[in-house]
Amino acid sequence: MGREAGGDKGIAVKRKSRSFALCCLTIMIAFGTCTTNGPREPTIWTLDNLKRIGDLQPQILGSPEVKETRRGPAIEFNGTSDALILDTYPLAGWSEFTIEIIFRPDTGGLPEQRFMHTQADDDHRVLVETRLVDDHWFLDTYIKSGDSDRTLANRDSLHPLGEWYHAALTYKENVMTHYVNGVKEASRRVTYVPLSGGRISIGCRLNEVYWFKGAIRQVCFSPRALSPSAFVLKNDQAAPGNASDGGKQTSQGMG
Fold first, then answer.
1. How many angstroms separate the Cα of 145 from the Cα of each of 6, 121, 169, 190, 221?
2. What is each CA distance from 30 to 33, 37, 182, 223, in whole angstroms?
3. Mean pLDDT over each residue of the chain, to the nearest integer
4. Cα separation, 129 vs 149, whole angstroms
């Protein structure tokens, strides 16, 4: 009897252990689902047409045009009325991220151009912007997440207009950092809370102001804060000085 009772006790302990393990596994799966919502591979958009951006049909504002450039087909925006709006939030569920853009800011645009705007609601948004100073520009990025917000801007990092560039914004563990052509230009602390959905505008702010003048070739959203060596849209594809194609006459010529 004693051995049989001990056996029953052992079986009960094993059952409890299995139940505990299953409970832990369920919690881990649920937690993982909450923190890894959305695609885990980079989402790359090549702006070479106006019908489909990735697998989405954009809302078109104004009359943006697809033009051949040294980087391949790209969408040009006139700086006053052209933009695309998409009903998606590429950063959905991500606790860290990288946004990359291959673009050409042109002369004659507004001093402030909020040309990449992702927003979940009024209190949660991420923007990539340019600020023009004479015939140069510098990168301006912004994150607002509830009561926490931060602007990055280095006015000493000026770049000639009319050339192709790679810009990147990363976020991880309360730190946002931005780069131009793989070179870190600014970094500060901010708190960002992962969200589930929203919209994005390309070429202006979502409320249709601060229009962008220039061309955009590619955009990439990655669910990791990448280092420059790991950027998906490689820097050498956007090196200035050999990539002017109509935004501005440079010393290297138009080709």
1. 57, 10, 16, 8, 18
2. 5, 11, 36, 19
3. 84
4. 15
Contact 178, 169 (CB under 8 A): yes
- Cβ contact 58:77 at 8 Å: no
**Most confidently modeled of 15-19, 31-35, 193-197?**
193-197
Q: Which tens digit of pLDDT belongs to each residue from 198-240?
A: 999 999 999 999 999 999 999 999 999 999 999 999 755 554 4
The residues, any chain, with a CB within 8 Å of residue 111's CB and separated by 6 or more, are: 131, 132
Whole-angstrom distance, CA of residue 77 vs CA of residue 125: 22
Q: Assign domain 42-238 to a CATH class.
A: mainly beta
Residue 6 has pLDDT above 50, yes or no: no
Q: What is the pLDDT of residues 82-105, one digit of tens each?
A: 999 999 999 999 999 999 999 999
Residue 6 Cα to chain centre, angstroms: 61
Domain map (residue ranges) of the chain: 1-35, 42-238
Give, in degrees to the nearest 5, the angle at Cα 76 between 248 and 107.
Answer: 30
